[in-house]
Write a structure and sequence with these properties.
CATH class of the largest domain in chain A: Mainly Beta
Number of strands of chain B: 4
Strand order of the largest sheet of chain B: 1-4-2-3
Number of helices of chain A: 4
Mean pLDDT of chain B: 81
Oligomer: heterodimer
Distance between the termini of chain A: 20 Å
Radius of gyration of chain A: 23 Å
CATH topology of chain B: 60s Ribosomal Protein L30, Chain: A
Number of domains of chain A: 2
Number of domains of chain B: 1
Strand content of chain A: 35-45%
Order of helices and strands of chain B: HHEHEHEHE
CATH class of chain B: Alpha Beta
Helix content of chain B: 40-55%
Shape of chain A: globular
Shape of chain B: globular
Radius of gyration of chain B: 17 Å
Distance between the termini of chain B: 60 Å
CATH architecture of chain B: 2-Layer Sandwich
CATH topology of the largest domain in chain A: Neuraminidase
CATH architecture of the largest domain in chain A: 6 Propeller
CATH superfamily of chain B: OmpA-like domain
Structural class of chain B: alpha+beta
């Protein structure tokens, strides 16, 4: 397993290619807005295999890029059957007329070479109607088993050039893999690519494990385990796959941990008697500090991206609602005032929105609101949706959806912040409690 | 808006009704304690069987090892208190037993909140037993939130059985 974990780190030399023609940044751009968007049409023919060993990757690389781009809902692929031109050489001039004829606005061309177990991918992005290159060609290299990451790297570049924002495809998600019926469910921590590929298990299923959370750099994972009999916070080193209990000195039950944006502190809940409050720990010194002091349930804390504030849920008003306080504690301001109950708030990495789980009339929703509680929007509805996590660019949310009843299982879904595109994330078994890691 | 609030009230009322009606004592079937260990002997009470008042099986089945709660509540109903009076009496008599009170929630709540809610229920149960004279050092509690349901159907009949605090007894060390 250690070797598996290490493979992804072995890759990636990034090289800019010399301009193919008169390189210039065209005006082609899609704006990510909250209204309706006509997806931008693009074409991505199979990559050109430069060496015999690369032919197996030529099609797969292009397919993963297309899955990434089309999965955003911002882009629409022109099917390959409609293509007129075939791209047989990466360096040959592009036949723009053939791509204009099928109404592709954007063309992505690529090549792949394999040598000594390493594969190298080159790509260029073209503005079809102006006949110019968008940005510069680039190349990425990786060990062969990391080929999917190369596709995600290419797709992130295309996304950035067309939206002006950073992508999220070359990222991983830590989650709880689930098997067995609801009353005997086995849970273990797992990590995967954002699209559900390359699942690796981090713990066995001897103890209940819950709600893993990545550190900002993705090197550590906080989670809650019942290994000692009570829920306790553990921290796991992703590289060595070793974990230890986070000694917090407080009560016996501790849970709902999250890192601060600089990775130096952890905010979490401790239960003492009937009371659950929020605490903060400095990881270097182990010093802890109690941040809330009410007799109610305070849990699910999440830092603002600048680390200065914490959003959390509390039932001090009688039902679960969302509050914001300073990261030093003190007075908290309630921000949720709609009907129903609000929990599991998570601050967007862009700082603008807070994602939450809402319960209303026996239904569960994933929603977003501004940090002052205004402009609440519900993005999903089902008998049991919960636990949102943000993509590193703050444009997409992943969450768990559990189906009810004896045969009920949990799966992961993603949805964009406009609520346009709901996608099931394919995992080998049941899955819950996703936490999205950083862009790699 | 109006429909929503009515539906909420209705849900709450149903929840309360389901809690105060029936289904009071867990039947304890399948808990695997004692019963049948020396099966086949006729006449007399088998030590360790459910008919032996000093047995864990008797505690689980006859006294009742669990109490139930209304939706999002941790207050003990009159029936729950009656069950706990029986538990306290049993623990007083069988004072070499320790107990862990396990708090649980139904799946209709978010994961973290349900852990805290299960703790409230377990703590309310534990405090009640202490108020009836059980030494605090014989008791502790843990919450499983919604992680360990006993019923898996998606109706209030199941949810009401999952909103529970279960007193799990075990023989103590020495004393």
């Amino acid at each position: 397993m250690k070797q598996l974990m290490a493979l992804c780190l072995a890759l990636l030399a990034v090289v800019a290619l010399p301009a193919a023609s008169q390189a210039q940044n065209g005006p082609l751009r899609i704006e990510i807005t909250e209204g309706t968007i006509e997806p931008m049409a693009y074409a991505v023919p199979d990559f050109v295999a430069e060496t015999p060993g690369a032919s197996q990757y030529a099609q797969q690389l292009a397919r993963v890029v297309a899955d990434d781009l089309s999965g955003t809902g911002l882009f629409r692929e022109i099917p390959r059957e409609a293509h007129i031109s075939r791209v047989t050489s990466f360096e040959a001039p592009v036949q723009f007329a053939d791509w204009r004829a099928i109404n592709a606005l954007v063309l992505l061309t690529g090549s792949v070479a394999e040598q000594g177990g390493r594969i190298t991918v080159k790509f260029r992005v073209w503005d079809v109607f102006s006949g110019t290159e968008l940005g510069q060609g680039m190349q990425f290299a990786a060990t062969a088993d990391g080929w999917r990451r190369l596709s995600h790297k290419v797709a992130d570049q295309v996304y950035t050039r067309l939206t002006g924002e950073s992508g999220y495809f070359d990222s991983r998600v830590v989650f709880v893999s689930e098997s067995g019926p609801k009353d005997q469910r086995a849970k273990r921590l797992a990590i995967m690519d954002y699209d559900g590929a390359n699942v690796q298990y981090l713990t066995d299923s001897r103890s209940i494990v819950l709600a893993p959370r990545f550190s900002p750099s993705g090197d550590r994972v906080l989670y809650t385990s019942y290994e000692t009999g009570e829920p306790r916070i553990h921290v796991l080193n992703v590289g060595s796959v070793r974990s230890q209990i986070l000694q917090n000195g407080g009560g016996v039950m501790s849970f709902a941990p999250r890192f601060s944006p600089d990775g130096s502190r952890v905010v979490y809940s401790v239960t003492s008697g009937s009371n659950t409050d929020i605490y903060l720990m400095e990881l270097a010194s182990g010093a802890t500090r109690q941040l809330t002091f009410t007799p109610s349930i305070e849990t699910a804390p999440s830092f603002s991206p600048d680390g200065s504030r914490i959003v959390f849920e509390s039932d001090r008003s009688g039902t679960q609602q969302l509050y914001i306080m300073s990261a030093a504690g003190g007075e908290a301001t309630r921000i949720s005032f709609g009907q129903g109950r609000y929990g599991t708030p998570v601050w967007s990495p862009r700082g603008d929105l807070i994602a939450f789980t809402k319960q209303l009339s026996g239904r569960f929703h994933i929603g977003v609101m501004r940090t002052d509680g205004s402009e609440e929007r519900l993005l999903t509805a089902s008998p049991l949706d919960e636990g949102p996590t943000w993509a590193p660019n703050g444009r997409v949310i992943m969450f768990s959806r559990e189906t009810l009843g004896a045969q009920g299982t949990s799966s992961l879904y993603s949805v964009d912040v406009a609520g346009r595109k709901l996608t099931r994330v394919r995992t080998p078994d049941g899955a819950s409690d996703p936490a999205w890691g950083p862009l790699q | 808006m109006h429909i929503f609030s009515k539906a909420l009230i209705l849900t709450a009322v149903l929840g309360l009704a389901a809690c105060t009606n029936g289904g009071r004592f867990g039947n304890g079937a399948g808990d695997g304690y004692g019963s049948g260990a020396n099966g086949g002997v006729s006449g007399g009470v088998l030590p360790g069987s459910a008919n032996d008042p000093a047995s864990p099986a008797y505690f689980n089945q006859t006294v009742g090892d669990r109490v139930f709660f209304a939706v999002d509540q941790s207050t003990l109903s009159a029936q729950a208190q009656a069950t706990l009076d029986g538990q306290a009496q049993w623990l007083m008599t069988n004072n070499d037993y320790l107990a862990v009170i396990e708090g649980h929630a139904d799946e209709q709540g978010t994961r973290e909140y349900n852990i805290a809610l299960g703790a409230r229920r377990a703590n309310a149960t534990m405090e009640y037993l202490i108020s009836k004279g059980i030494a605090p050092n014989r008791l502790r509690f843990v919450s499983y939130g919604k992680e360990r349901p006993v019923e898996v159907c998606a109706s209030e009949a199941c949810y009401s059985k999952n909103r529970r605090a279960v007193t799990v007894i075990s023989m103590g060390m020495g004393s």
